[in-house]
Write the structure tokens for this entry.
Amino acid sequence: MECSTDTLAAMLGPNITNADGAAALICNNFNTVSDKFTDTAYAVDSTYLLFSAYLVFSMQLGFAMLCAGSVRAKNTMNIMLTNVLDAAAGGLFYYLFGFAFAFGTPSNGFIGKHNFALKSIPSSDFDYSYFLYQWAFAIAAAGITSGSIAERTQFVAYLIYSAFLTGFVYPVVSHWFWSADGWASAFNSDNLLFGSGVIDFAGSGVVHMVGGIAGLYGALIEGPRIGRFDHSGRSVALRGHSASLVVLGTFLLWFGWYGFNPGSFNKILVAYEPGQYYGQWSAVGRTAVTTTLAGCTAALTTLFGKRILLGHWNVVDVCNGLLGGFAAITAGCSVVDPWAAVICGFVAACVLTGCNKLAEKFKYDDPLEAAQLHGGCGAWGIIFTALFAKEKYVNEVYPGKPGRPYGLFMGGGGKLLGAHVIQILVIFGFVSATMGPLFLILHKLKLLRISPEDETAGMDMTRHGGFAYVYHDESDDPKGLPMRKIEPASST
């Protein structure tokens, strides 16, 4: 209720010497206090979003460590440099173009048209914190792709695909499903797809499928690493050099996922029932719990599944299974119950195992299982959400449209499932039509794959001036043999 001087003066009555002055003083103080509460709410929500952005950005270190541990020692510097450049190049191109294509408003349903280079920001729609958070998501998609094409890709190809993915491909997809103007967005108040829109809360499709499918085309066009399959076509394991780095990277990614999924609320100070203990802060906590349970279940399922299939306990496989559970729950983390997250994680582990079997059968080589993990488990997460989304949570997280369709298995009908099937198809089609030709052009121009000689020697020596690890310092050990720098061989 607005504090009116005239109304308050009338209520004070004629016995007050200066009723208008007293009313003005009270109203001014009341409005000052009210403004402070409003300012505090903005500050709390902005701080929450910035903290979430920092958590998501920390996942870049997780990706770097996971990638480094999953490749052979002779390519460690190369893969870590690509992760650094994903963040750096992605930051510049997302600033110039990506954010505008994704969220520039007003726009059409396909692509954003405003806010290039953050023009007119901050505004009533966005502050700088929102850009930073979305940038962290964009470079995560690029990081996924770099794992698929590791150990055999020219550095210039990394720069080109990373700029294109973060500056155009990923932003367009995120506009479709996350912008209020997007044609399939659940936030679109005018024309919801099948009356529901797509509930891809934190990006099983927008982030994980995009990165995974892009990596799929890169790895397919490049072909497998030398020695990955023998002359008879039998699979040969080219193991990463450090399980320790894989575990370190996995825990860093786990930590960062608490910004990735719960942070996607963008704000925390929203009361569902004013004056009660239950509000958006409860939904944030529930999202963290569902994320945790899906990952834990997938890890344990992979542990025992691999024990049955292979006869031993494998920590690297368990780490990948854990991440597969996280990738799957990312779409529906905010709208499902904890018990459903357990089902999500169990099936995600099975999907990952099945995708890896198919990859081996078709001689597809992905050093980090990125396409299988993020593409396959991401697609399962989209279907899972359409099956298990709970009506109460859907209406809380996506308010303003009573009667919105929800999960099929929860009694909500099949409209949400139809919307999510369309999401899978259009993401696969769009990324195929953009990233596939890009990798093919790079291949035709001989800018994609390094020469066999460089690949055999390792890119750290031929392309980056030396190994990541100091095996020997000739100044300390005069008896040792100094390592000789190998010049890059011709890629033709």
Q: What stands out?
A: The chain has 15 helices and no strands. Residues 473-483 have pLDDT under 50 and may be disordered. Residues 75 and 151 are 6 Å apart (CA to CA). The radius of gyration is 26 Å.
